[in-house]
């Protein structure tokens, strides 16, 4: 598979992830379909994948304890902020602030 094909497939996948919820969301009934439930989980799944990739890149077994505590504090603040606010943007911002401030 060449590079151009890979770019086109990634673009089509991104388009479909954004377009399908619009199409299925216009005529929703009281009981959501299986496709609707699956598509509603895509945002959370994407955020989880980004968090896992970020954490793997930041955590290394030989790093000082302070760095590990900084990583744990930032991650815990994301979870707490998400639980309290229910808003993913607020939780992400809170995690970045706590992670940055604990590094000073």
Summarize this, please?
With 104 residues, this protein is mainly alpha-helical. It contains five helices and no strands.
Question: How many strands?
Answer: 0
Shape field: flat
Category from helices, strands and their pairing:
mainly alpha
User: How many H/I helices?
Assistant: 5
Q: Which residue ranges are poorly predicted, with pLDDT under 50 across at least 5 consecutive positions?
A: none
Radius of gyration: 18 Å
Reported for the largest beta sheet, the result is: none
- For the terminal residues, how far apart are their CA atoms? 46 Å
Order of helices and strands: HHHHH
Helix content: over 70%
Mean of the pLDDT scores? 76
Percent in strands: under 5%
What would you note in describing this structure?
The protein has 5 helices and no strands. Helix 1 crosses helix 2 and helix 4 packs antiparallel against helix 5. The N and C termini lie far apart (46 Å).
Task: Describe this protein with a few key phrases.
mainly alpha; 5 helices; 104 residues
Topology overview:
Blueprint: H1 3-25, H2 34-40, H3 42-58, H4 65-85, H5 88-102
Helix pairs in contact: 1-2, 4-5
